[in-house]
Amino acid sequence: MAQYHGFIRLFIVSTRFYRLRASRARAHERRSTRIGACRLGRCPNVSTSASRLKTFAYVNVESAALYRDVMRTFMEAKERFSLHLRPHEVQAALSVSHRVIDDPPSIETALQQLCEWGNLERHPDTADVATVEEFYRPRFLYQLTPEGEAAEKAIAFYSDEILRSGELQTAALTDIVALLQELEGLGAETSPDEGRTHRTLSSLRSRFEELTSRAQAFIGSLQRSIDLHGAKVVEFLTYKETLINYLERFIGELRLATAEIATTLERIEAGGVERLLGMAAQRDLADAVAATDDDRTAAAARWRARWSGLRSWFIGRVDAPSQAEVLRSRARSAIPSLLSAIISINDRRVTRSDRVTDLRVLARWFAEADSDHDAHRLWRAAFALAPARHLRIDDATLDERESAPPVLPQTSWLDSPPLRIAPRLRRLGWHVHRGRPPNVIDRSSEKAMLRADAEAEAAQLATAQQRLATGGLTRLSELGVLNPVEFDVFLDLLGETLAMRVDRDDTVCTISSDGSLRITLRPTRDGSTAVIRSTIGRLSGPDHFITIEDVFAVPSPAVGDRTVGTLSSSYGREPVV
Amino acid sequence: MNTKHLTPTELAVTAERQRALRTLLRYPLLSASGSRSAEAGLVRRHAVWLRDWLARNPGWSLQVDSEVARLRKTPADLLDGTRPARDPLNNTDFTRRRYVIFCLALAALERSDRQTTLGKMANEVVGFAAADPALARTGIVFDLASHDQRRDLVHATRLLLELCVLVRVHGDEQQYLNSQGDVLYNVNRPALAAVLNIKRGPSTVVDTEFDARLSALVAEALPDTDDGRNRRLRSQLTRMLLDDPVVYYDALDPESLAYLNSQRAQLVRQIAEASGLIPEVRREGIAMVDDAGDVTDIGLPEEGTEGHLTLLLAEFLANHARREPGTPVAESTLYRHTARLAAEHRSHWRKSMTEPNAEVPATSETIDRLIALKLVRRVPSGVIPLPAVARYAVAAPDTDGAAGSRRPRRRRRREAR
Question: In the predicted model, is pLDDT for residue A39 greater than 70?
């Protein structure tokens, strides 16, 4: 029987050995292809579809804490460069650092589950054992897979990012300026050093990414902080001071740095940046196992994208402001929200007690008032919104009081002159006529009368003009008596002529205002006075020779005494009415 | 101050300041975004001078910022119950219930965000009322289910709208009254913060007696030196002269009377210069009268039937005061007189005045107005006319078109006497 045992054991061991070797070889092969494939950008084991990534499954299951501790242990071990761990080593590490495990098998199941998810790999353990049970128990060595390592790193990064507070880094700005200047220097050389170019561009990229991500985190947390701190006044006030100083400093630095960076970027681009980017891309692929053309174009494209991102951050276009502008405006707009928080705190500080409680107590007081009259008193005392009230006075009384002697202050109201008011009232009534509208009134008789009057007047005027405009020379003193209409016409003509005269002894010839008569006036210079009589009065003045002619009449050949005769013969004739 | 020696610019500035002060006296709360934004702008322009003058003379604090201008017009006379809150649409006085709802609505607004609806306010008011057992003990109950209850809330909200504490965005209060809809408002927080004018929070006052509560609300601490006492007297007197129609000497305490007698001319002149009100100083008291009619809510004389009736009753009471000073007039006498007047002026007055028993409510209203204007005083046996009522005399009524064009109103600058 013992020989069978021996054969079986040999058989088991040998198969195990072969299996081990095969698995090791397979694992090695898998690993190398995987590494190579990953290097070249093709990873067959990572599903590119959007289905669940089992590698991350350990984060959200029930005993996620245990799994995370285990993975962390592996990561810590990796930092010490011990790549393989045995279960009992894991347990020891866990009990030292984090937790005490009640039953060892749970570690084993956890490790196994992690292997299934692809976070860990296991290999059979070939170390010597001490007891038989251990020999028969499946013993494995565990090791992080690349996926597991990447997942764990991602999660660690995630927690760090969340816990890390944002910052607005002015130091990063100065670094970026320095790096860009160095890059400009490199671009000016004919054959710049590839290594230096790559180093400069890489550090530029990392600094820039840090600046942007931290700034974003800061701005995002700004509003939350304001809301949070608004509760406690004293801390809020100190927070406000520091925040405003911080923002001011950053905004100032950003403005200066942006201007400088923008000019440097433009100078670099003028000098040709493609060359530098190409060199950096080439250097990226220098350590690749087998770099294809696709890889090179991809790398170049990546660098170009990073450069354009950097550029657009600092230099904006017409329709799209640069990201620096956006950051600045967001930082600036944090200040008004800060101020409104302060205002609300201030309002709450007006009274020592909470305003809502005050208003409720006031409501109770109103309810407990005895009457409406008391309620009105409380209203006036508590709210003071009632308008003032005064007696009125009108302008008439004010005028009276100004003109009258002033009322002494000792006079009683009963004895002083009162305000006399005639209250304006509307007579009750009927401003609207009811019924049919009235007919149009016939005014033809009145119109006829007016027309007759106008015609009569015109006829009078024509006769007067005719009588005066004889065309002959005459003295004013010999004009005779004129009726009122003639007198008016005569005065008009005289006025016209005298107005035109400049010198006393001039002869003036002018035309009347309606243009139908021509008048010539010459002073006689013999010192005599003329008196012109009319039925309404007498006009006297120095004598003149006057000739009145009708402008439109045909000039008659005979002039002279006939005019005098005509005028005197017209005296005594009744004027036409 | 002789106004003739001022330059035109100074005159214009003085006129503007007077107008600003008068606006504040009439509307103590002005919002920059409302129907009175122009006046608010005027007050802002002269804020420095106004604040200074108001602090020195009546001792009122003026709070002016870009959103709201608030004159904290603490009253001097706490016994005056003739200035109720009024519903701006119907001009009805507020009842106690409405005041309670107003306060609770303000409390609800304090807790709300930038916008609120009438329904939400109503729910909060109900919640406050239910949470306070003292309110239930006084018999005031809110469930806002019936039309009447909702109407009280709507009236309170209308007052808030007039004060520009709320701005209506969408909806109609009438629909809310009919339970058919809701109204959306924007809350104007600066105005909300400025509405309440108390030096001490009511929740810190433990008095239960009403008058003690009132005095606790408006109590100001001034130092107990001579100067402090004088300042208090001066500010009390200035407040009364600025806010009340007439200040009677026999209503003042001896200390104030002594101060007034010594400082009267200067005090009155200060007020007249700053506000443009014209002083009438008589043996019985001082009245600052308003010639433009914009500083007062009730005016006398006024137009219309009520105005005429008020004048006639004032004249009747004045004659009574001349004949029998100090004796009260029974109200029945006044009713009879009103009935006679209604019959006499039937053609001028409103038709409803000639109905039977119409004189009773009309006379009561008129007497209330006269009391509000401090022209009469109510006693158990009737009303006693106070001296200032004698300043009115009625000429024949000027019916429309009979007396020609109305004399244009013009502002005058008068030398104070």
Answer: no
Closest CA to A493 of A459, A524, A470, A468: A468
> At A550, is the secondary structure helix, strand, or coil?
strand
Cα–Cα distance, A394 to A424 (Å, whole number): 13
Q: Return the closest-CA partner of residue A383 out of B64, B294, B54, B163.
A: B163
Task: State the number of CA atoms in the 13 A half-sphere of B253 facing the CB.
Answer: 5
Question: In one letter, which amino acid is A380?
Answer: R
pLDDT of residue A428: 41
Task: Compute the half-sphere exposure of residue A133: CA atoms within 13 Å on the CB side of its CA.
Answer: 0
Q: How far apart are CA A544 and CA A528, in angstroms?
A: 9
Q: Which of B392, B281, B378, B276 is nearest to B334 (CA)?
A: B378
Structure tokens at B14: 């003085």
What number is the average pLDDT over the span A489-498? 84
Q: Which of B52, B50, B86, B56 is nearest to B69 (CA)?
A: B50
Evaluate whether A247 touches A222 at the Cβ level (below 8 Å): no
Contact A132, A69 (CB under 8 A): no
Pairing of strands B278-281, B285-289: antiparallel
How many Å apart are CA B6 and CA A574, to the nearest integer?
A: 70
Tokens of A266: 């433009």
Contact B394 A356 (CB under 8 A): no
Please state the length of chain B.
417
Lowest mean pLDDT among A29-33, B241-245, B354-358: A29-33
Whole-prediction pTM: 0.55
CA separation, residue B387 to residues A389, B238, B256, B286, B291 (Å): 17, 21, 20, 11, 20
Listed by number, the residues of chain B in 211-230 with a beta carbon closer than 8 Å to a beta carbon of chain A are: 213-214, 217-218
Structure tokens at B387: 């001296």
Residue contacts between A and B (CB atoms, under 8 Å)? 310
Rounded to the nearest 10°, the torsion over CA B144, B147, B149, B151 is: 120
Tell me what pLDDT residue B164 has: 92
Neighbouring CB atoms inside 10 A of B141's CB total 11
Residues linked to residue B20 through DSSP beta bridges, in sequence order: none
Rg of chain A over all Cα atoms, to the nearest angstrom: 59
The answer to whether B369 touches B321, Cβ cutoff 8 Å, is no
Tokens read off for A294: 């696709």
DSSP code string of A505-525: T--EEEE-TTSSEEEEEEE--
Choose among A364, A380, A395: nearest Cβ to B291: A395
Alpha helical stretches, state H, A408-482: 444-468
- Structure-token pair, residue A568: 């005197």
Identify the helix (H) or strand (E) that includes residue B393: strand B392-394
Check CB contact under 8 Å for A363 and B290. no
Q: List beta partners, residue B67.
A: none
Other beta carbons within 10 angstroms of residue A575's beta carbon come to: 15
Q: Are B94 and B155 in contact (CB under 8 A)?
A: yes
Distance, in Å, from the CA atom of A378 to the CA atom of A384, rounded to the nearest integer, reads 9
* Dist. CA B149–CA B98, nearest whole Å: 9
- In the chain, the amino acid numbered B330 is A
Q: What is the pLDDT of residues A352-384, one digit of tens each?
A: 457 888 899 999 999 998 889 999 999 999 998
Angle at B216 between CA B211 and CA B220, to 5 degrees: 130
Predicted confidence band at A44 (pLDDT cuts at 50, 70, 90)?
Answer: very low
Of B128, B214, B410, the CB nearest to A378: B214
Q: Taking CA atoms, what residue in A is nearest to B391?
A: A418
Q: Which of A427-441, A458-472, A547-561 has the highest mean pLDDT?
A: A458-472
Token pair 């009546």 is found at B58
- Scan for tokens 């170009």, then name that residue: A304
Q: Token pair of B46, please?
A: 């002269």
- Residue keyed to tokens 């100004």: A402
